[in-house]
Amino acid sequence: MSIHRHRHRHRHLAALASGLLLALPVRAADPAPADDPHAACKAAAAKATADAARPASAQAAPAAAAVVLEDLPMVDQDGTFRRFRSEVVGGRLVVMDFVFTTCTTICPVLSSKMARLQERLGDRLGREVFLVSVSVDPARDGPPQLLAYSKKWKARQGWSFLGGKPADVEAVLKGMGAYTANFANHPPMFLVGDGRTGKWTRLNGFPEVDQLLKQVDTLAAARAEKSAALGGSRP
What we know:
Helix content: 40-55%
CATH class: Alpha Beta
Number of domains: 1
Strand content: 15-25%
Largest sheet: 8 strands, mixed
Strand order of the largest sheet: 1-8-7-4-5-6-2-3
Distance between the termini: 118 Å
Number of strands: 8
């Protein structure tokens, strides 16, 4: 066979192979397993991350939240039972988020913001302001799991991690507007409130720590103003 005929035959076979490849259906990437317990959480994280990347002016503003504080027993990371409305919130200034300890997507982001807020609060934590993280997976998050999670984030006195009986926790979450039937699909959000006045603000997604602190300071300033007014009216 001549060199010319050999090259012609080689080009013909290459063209044929290329045509066959183009004719084959393109297989899409395998979807996430249907039983992936974090699939919904990953999707929520992707959306919230995209939202957080938008300019502040384009993000949802903090909104007043109507909440119902159920006075049901909760258990914290130390195994101490406390009623949610009267003993956890009481008359305190509170920043609250909703997580579960085995989450690997949005919950670590929420907890990292709480940890940074803890540092910014300094000695106000546990004295003037309290942080509360409520588990949305109470069936798996008992005191040992909550304690390990709290240590991971170096939580100090004044930052509580709460679980309890699933029915009680469900009622508490519903009252706070934080319940989802599939706990892995819970939306990222924070609540900042004053248990004394009943004023609460909801911040969806991943707000900046400065934004959370601003809400706390606004509530603290309102308290101070009211206290000064009451003091000035006394004889």
